[in-house]
Amino acid sequence: MKKNLVFLGPPGAGKGTQAKMLSQELGLIHISTGDILRSAVEKRTPLGVKAKEYMDRGELVPDDLIIALIEEVLPQQGGFVLDGFPRTVAQAKALDRLLDRKGMNLSAVILFDVPDDTVVERLSGRRICPRCGAVYHIRYNPPREDEICDRCGAKLIQREDDREEVIRKRLSVYREQTAPLVEYYSERDILVKLDASRPIEEIHRRLLEILNEKGN
Ligand code: ADP
Ligand code: AMP
Q1: How far is the CA of 2 from the centre of ligand 1 (A)?
Q2: Tens digits of per-residue pLDDT, 35-51?
Q3: Which of 111, 146, 158, 194 has the fewest CB atoms in 10 Å of its CB?
Q4: Would residue 170 show up in a list of annotated catalytic residues for this protein?
Q5: Binding residues for ATP, per the UniProt record (predicted)?
Q6: Ligand 2: which of 36, 38, 47, 55 to mutate, most ligand atoms within 8 Å of CB?
Q7: Assigned superfamily of 4-115+165-214
Q8: How far is residue 104's CA from residue 121's CA, in Å, rounded to a whole number?
Q9: Residues with CB under 6 A from ligand 2
Q10: Omega into 130 within 30° of 0, i.e. cis?
Q11: What does pLDDT average to in each consecutive run of 10 residues of the chain (216 residues)?
Q12: Distance 66 CA to ligand 2 centre (A)
């Protein structure tokens, strides 16, 4: 049966890295609201123009815009990893309603648990490929050739919001607006806490184990 997953956790916890690996291996659709928004900003679509100012400041884009976006991109049949959504209780409730309407439910919500100083270190060393979206870390996951994407050869860049002042702001936004989702989901039996401070491959193996244990 196809899994419908939510990856929850602070920015830099490794959600995107793991979502890419897992979706490739299990044939799931990876939905990253951050990636979709960055692409909208790049293309200067109406959504991108509205979202940019919030993203640059490290704040959340308003719920109504994000909920409309998810309604558009959520696959009809299920089999997805939601990465970076929901980020507020209002978004989580909207997701519940949407899944209900489609006759689907969540298989698991994985909480990526990682200390703040690790987040700061990961985000400040993160480099992304502006062409294909691959994610690297200068120390923990470096490209074969300095600053060049292994997959497509483009020159890697640092995200605008991966500067220290914005990172601190994003962490406080996480604590205030997103962390309440831990309680929201732990009231059901679907929240699984993961030690996200471990190395990338180890977390991947652990995720596969968790999904096996979850069965459905
Ligand atoms: P998120 O999607 O949660 O914001 P990313 O997957 O983009 O996080 O990871 C943030 C940074 O940390 C990236 O540079 C990535 O290469 C690196 N990273 C991801 N997982 C790990 C890990 N387990 N150990 C060390 N570095 C990691
Ligand atoms: P991310 O790539 O997940 O770190 O997201 C980058 C930025 O996009 C965030 O700091 C927010 O400004 C915006 N964003 C992404 N997902 C959401 C969401 N679910 N709700 C509100 N804003 C979001």
Answers
A1: 25
A2: 999 999 999 999 999 99
A3: 146
A4: yes
A5: 12-17, 126, 135-136, 198
A6: 55
A7: P-loop containing nucleotide triphosphate hydrolases (3.40.50.300)
A8: 37
A9: 11, 33-34, 37, 54-55, 58-61, 66, 84-85, 87, 91, 161, 170
A10: no
A11: 93 98 96 96 96 97 98 93 98 97 95 96 96 94 97 96 94 98 93 97 97 76
A12: 9
Specify the DSSP class assigned to residue 149: -
The pTM of the full predicted model, rounded to 2 decimals, is: 0.97
Q: Domain segments of the chain: what residues?
A: 4-115+165-214
CB 78 within 8 A of CB 104: yes
- Which distant-in-sequence residues (6+ apart) come within 8 Å of 130 by Cβ? 154, 155, 156, 157
Compute how many other C-beta atoms are within 10 angstroms of the C-beta atom of residue 156. Answer: 22
